[in-house]
Amino acid sequence: MPLNLAGCGLRAFFCIAISFFCIVRAEDPYRFFNWNVTYGDIYPLGVRQQGILINGQFPGPDIHSVTNDNLIINVFNSLPEPFLISWNGVQQRRNSYEDGVWGTTCPIPPGKNFTYILQVKDQIGSFYYFPSLAFHKAAGGFGGIRILSRPLIPVPFPDPAGDYTVLIGDWYKANHTKLKAILDRGKKLPFPDGILINGRGPNGVSFTVDQGKTYRLRISNVGLQNSLNFRIQGHKLVLVEVEGTHTLQTTYSSLDVHVGQSYSVLVTADQPGQDYYIVVSSRFTTSILTTTGVLHYSNSAGPVSGPPPGGPTIQVDWSLNQARSIRTNLTASGPRPNPQGSYHYGLINTTRTIRLANSAGQVNGKQRYAVNSVSFIPADTPLKLADYFNIEGVFRVGSISNNPYGGGIYLDTSVMGADFRAFVEIVFENYEDIYRVGTLMAILSS
Ligand SMILES: *[C@@H]1O[C@H](CO)[C@@H](O)[C@H](O)[C@H]1NC(C)=O
Ligand SMILES: *[C@@H]1O[C@H](CO)[C@@H](O)[C@H](O)[C@H]1NC(C)=O
Ligand SMILES: *[C@@H]1O[C@H](CO)[C@@H](O)[C@H](O)[C@H]1NC(C)=O
Ligand SMILES: *[C@@H]1O[C@H](CO)[C@@H](O)[C@H](O)[C@H]1NC(C)=O
Ligand SMILES: *[C@@H]1O[C@H](CO)[C@@H](O)[C@H](O)[C@H]1NC(C)=O
Fold first, then answer.
1. Which of the pair, 444 or 280, is modelled with greater confidence?
2. Which of these, 55, 63, 312, 396, is most buried using a 10 Å CB contact count?
3. How close is the Cα of 288 to the center of ligand 5, in Å?
4. 88, containing H or E segment
5. Which InterPro entries match (predicted)?
6. CATH number of 30-147
7. Which amino acid residue places its CA nearest to atom 10 of ligand 5?
């Protein structure tokens, strides 16, 4: 959809003004980032593409932080079009207008800058950021976010010898404008051309390990639509953290990572000193895309050898069973916000159930996706700002139903009301033939 900035331009000053209302605790450290977002040539699959770089890098730089840090990220948009970054998994408590999706935050106009002010309050774990407008994510602009525990807080495993960000995702040789045009012409996305690991094609990345030591890999699926399976030849993956929660430490030979998910695994270099394949392959697709990277032992006697290990392909049960096997380690320490007595999960009475079903279809000749029949269109003023400044007529609470009702897809700015401290059960229903992880584009307002 074309970006209509008329309203946002006028109200850009709200975005700036509102930043100063953000309450930060003076004693928590500050980390400052200056980012310049530009277009630049990248060659991930061997052909030249116009990528989105941050400070000249593709993928963008990692954000390293510690629980409660204040992150001050000044983003200069040097693209000729509006740009917006979302901080996937960062809770943005009392700060949702910094979340960087259209709906909460104004895009940064071309040639301008905006300073995101986030506090990673009471959070730990592995996350990533990505551009949220105009299919920019298909061109780059993403990177890892890690939030370490504060030094005094025990972590339920020994300090790893190294800690690597592993961004995996499907990738297209077509540029993001072309991909967007395909949807705008009413077609679905084509099958991807490849899979990237940290922005590189086959055997483009190598992680060096010392024999006998244990390493942490923070794996995020930053792709557009494909679920991916991750595995390492001859090595086990010990899952220790999922998006900010320490898990019961379970050993897997491979791990499914759906779009938007982040997992931390420990890998011990307990094999003979040589190089091993890291394999990422597509799930639930009839033809299987595969890429490889290298786990390189510092005392390696030789290059990778043998066939890359196979993994699950179209089996859905395998994936569901693996997801069900993942459990929170309730005795592990870690900042754990405790809204309304979350230690008593299972005992709290649900006050409301919301069912959200996704669907796909065409509206006005364009390929659209909907939740409970509503395909979201942004209002000209971000909803959080409209809410904050009591601007009438921007959105209507109740413009999306609580339950699917089977109606045809229509466009609206969907907003659902909710009561403060209600205990809501949300059920995602997928009747489409593609595997999707739900993204809630509605705002729950009290
Ligand atoms: C961003 O990078 C571009 C291209 O290198 C440069 O022209 C521009 O001055 C940079 N802007 C900032 C704010 O650093
Ligand atoms: C833009 O960057 C300048 C400094 O480089 C900074 O002083 C200013 O506050 C930034 N503006 C916004 C809206 O973040
Ligand atoms: C859970 O965390 C505790 C406390 O750190 C740790 O001792 C225990 O080994 C963990 N359990 C599992 C199964 O990972
Ligand atoms: C994107 O791809 C289209 C079609 O291949 C091409 O015409 C266009 O110039 C490309 N745009 C950029 C910015 O590379
Ligand atoms: C849930 O409802 C039951 C039955 O009404 C009640 O006995 C119980 O105390 C409620 N639990 C909580 C945590 O409020």
1. 280
2. 63
3. 49
4. strand 85-88
5. Cu-oxidase-like_N, Cu-oxidase_2nd, Cu-oxidase_fam, Cupredoxin, CuRO_1_AAO-like, CuRO_2_AO-like
6. 2.60.40.420
7. 349
pLDDT of residue 21: 43
**The pLDDT of residue 26:** 54
Q: What is the pLDDT of residue 12?
A: 39
Q: Average pLDDT in the 366-383 region?
A: 91
Name the 3-class secondary structure at 429. strand
Residue spans of the domains in the chain: they are: 30-147, 162-325, 352-442
Checking if the pLDDT of 15 tops 60, the result is: no
Q: Is the CATH code 2.60.40.420 the one for domain 162-325?
A: yes
Burial group, residue 430, by CB count within 10 angstroms (0-12, 13-18, 19+): middle
Q: What angle do CA 203, 205, 209 make, to 5 degrees?
A: 115
Q: Which of 48, 81, 173, 175 to mutate to test the pocket of ligand 4 (most atoms within 8 A of CB)?
A: 175
For 332, half-sphere exposure in the C-beta direction (CA atoms, 13 angstrom radius) is 18
The CA 178 to ligand 4 mean position distance, Å, reads 7
Q: How far apart are CA 271 and CA 23, in angstroms?
A: 50
Q: Whose CA is nearest to atom 2 of ligand 2?
A: 113
Q: How far apart are CA 364 and CA 184, in angstroms?
A: 9
**Residue-level pLDDT at 436:** 53
pLDDT digits (tens, 9 = 90+) for 19-32: 444 444 458 999 99
Instruction: Give the pLDDT confidence score for residue 344 in this predicted structure.
Output: 64
Nearest ligand 1 atom to the CA of 76 is: 13
- Ligand 4 binding pocket includes 322 (Cβ within 6 Å): no
Task: Give the pLDDT mean for 261-266.
Answer: 97
* CA-closest candidate to residue 167, choices 194, 142, 138, 149: 142
CA atoms within 13 A on the CB side of 224: 24
Q: How far is the CA of 174 from the centre of ligand 4 (A)?
A: 8
Q: Is it true that 30-147 and 162-325 share their CATH fold?
A: yes
Around ligand 3, the residues with Cβ closer than 6 Å are 156, 248-249, 329, 331-332
Q: How far is the CA of 427 from the centre of ligand 5 (A)?
A: 22
What is the four-CA torsion angle of 334, 335, 340, 343, rounded to 10 degrees?
10
Atom of ligand 3 nearest to the CA of 155: 5
Please give the distance, rounded to the nearest whole angstrom, from the Cα atom of residue 85 to the centre of ligand 4. Answer: 23
Tokens of 424: 């809501």
Residue 142 · residue 83 · CB < 8 Å: no
The CA radius of gyration of the chain, in Å to the nearest whole number, is 22
